[in-house]
Amino acid sequence: MTFLRLFLFSLILSPFGYAVAPLGAPLPRSTPEAEGISSGGISALVDELESKAYGIHSIMIVRHGRVVAEGWWAPYTAEEPHMLFSLSKSFTSTAIGLLQAEGKIDIHDPILKYFAEDIPSDASDKLKIMRIRDLLMMSTGQHKEDVDRLNEGLTEKADATRQFLALPVPHKPGTLFYYNSPGTYMCSAIVTKVTGQTVRDYLETRLFAPLGIPTPEWDLSVQGYNHGASGLHLRTEEIAKFGQLLLQRGEWNGRRLVPAAWIDAATSRQTSNGSDPNGDWDQGYGFQFWRCVPGFYRGDGAHGQFCIVMPQYDTVIAINSGTPDMQAVMGTLWRLLLPELRPAALPADEAGLAKLRSKLTNLTQPTVSGANTNATAALVSGKVFHFASNALKLESISAKFKTNAARFAIRIDGQEYPVSARAGLWTKGETYPAVEAKLPAPAATTGAWTADDTYTLVISEYLNAFNATLKLRYQNGELTLERRVNVGNGAKDPVILTGKQ
Fold first, then answer.
1. Under a CB-based contact definition with an 8 Å cutoff, are residues 80 and 463 in contact?
2. What are the beta bridge partners of residue 307?
3. Residue 229 in domain
4. Reduced to 3 states, what is the DSSP secondary structure of residue 192?
């Protein structure tokens, strides 16, 4: 094939009339005005997201198949994957759709067909008629309290699938919506039972590789299944590519990757999930996809992981964040971005574009401002403060303060963690116990003396949604620690501990 033919092939037009990226390539780039959006409008959106302190980590806006705006708030970067939480569910759903297209399953199959070894001896009639479809649309007929109890430590249970099937099914499957993760975990288990592969490995050649997504990390359960409902880690642009594939109804660069009929079904209203006309969790639920107030759909995950697909506007939005208010983020998008999505190109705006690009290039999560050292620092530098037994398993803290940085030694559950921090800067390169996980996570830090007797240290899990703020107050030979986290369990409740020499 000649170079010219290869080049033309790389610019195959989708049914919507825009060029899409060739296999393995980044999405094409364009300017907002060329795709019918004002640079000033996007700047206003970014300003609003920042002023409201929503904790946005990244945003990418794709119009007509081309990226028109993209930005990462330091310490987050374009190159590093982010935990997707329940946005993972939409990928598990896609695996189920592909299995059905291959004739290996039917979503109307009873789920007991795939779990013969786990069937309870007293299986109820309602359990016997529960289908894969019921798992997909979160309508298994089980009660919230029962499913929630199973969800605690779900992926660490050696018999999680057996425990799921042992739950009472008081309602007819398909009639009662309750959003949960165990049902999606069962879908992941079905994929592995049918194919002998995890969902990730099954999707590798069918979805990830064609989209140019390097084999991603997807957490495994002790049973050997991908979590399914969570645990997938992707970069922002990889989320956007998935959204663009959905927008194109499963076609990518002239190849059919996912059946259009499956995407149509999965993203349409399959069940009612509420009645609030203004709530983005009340517009109907598909097969692991949510419907949105303005009439389009999304996959989303806890703390603000979004893949929003707007067929009416030929637009995709990918966002990662650590926000306690996902509805507010969506409301801001609907209010400020939708009016900017015009049907035709706009005149070039070089000044507005330059301002937008400068803004997007210099985004940062708030750092801690103040001094690296002060009079109190000289008094406590090198001293070790010990803590009584506590929920954080924090045993001791010591610190050394220098002109340009602080160096902490924080001992937690028998392990000492070195943590460096500077005023007004993010520093990477160390690990720290994660907010909601057992293993230490890569961390970025910033810190400074924010009062004469108080040092404020922020530790951010830059591959995840979480950060922890530690306020360390030195008085009368004691150290009072106040710990707050941005999102997650206990996010609203500070932990206060006192350490003594």
1. yes
2. 299, 318
3. no
4. helix
494 and 469 housed in the same domain: yes
**Residue 356 located in a structural domain:** yes
Rounded to a whole number of angstroms, the distance between the first and last alpha carbons of the chain is 75
Q: Count the domains in the chain.
A: 2
Joined tokens for residue 353? 């574009």
Closest CA to 56 of 360, 426, 496: 360
CA dihedral (310, 311, 315, 317) positive or negative: positive
**Residue 262 and residue 242: Cα distance in Å, rounded?**
15
* pLDDT attached to residue 21: 52
pTM of the complete model beyond 0.85: yes
CATH number at 496 reads 2.40.128.20
DSSP 35: G
DSSP strands (E only) in 216-266: 233-234, 251-252, 255-256
Query: Structure tokens of 402?
Result: 């220098």
Note the pLDDT of residue 18.
40
Examine residue 491 and state whether it is found in any structural domain, yes or no.
yes
Query: In this structure, are 439 and 334 located in the same domain?
Result: no
Least Cα distance to 455 among 438, 433, 473, 443 occurs for: 473
Q: Which pLDDT does position 10 carry in this prediction? A: 35
pLDDT value at residue 22: 52
Taking 70 as the pLDDT cut, the residues of the chain under it are 1-24
